[in-house]
Amino acid sequence: MSEDKLNKNDYSPKLEITRRGFLSLIGLGFLGVIGSLVLQGFSAVRSIIPNVLYEPPKKFKVGPPSKFSEGATFLSERLFIINNNNEFHAISAICTHLGCTVNLAKYSPPKAYVSRRTGKTVDETFEFHCPCHGSKYRENGNVYAGPAPLPLPWYELSLAPDGQIVVNTDKIVDHNFRLKV
Question: Strand 71-75 to strand 179-180: parallel, antiparallel, or no bridges (unpaired)?
Answer without folding.
Answer: unpaired
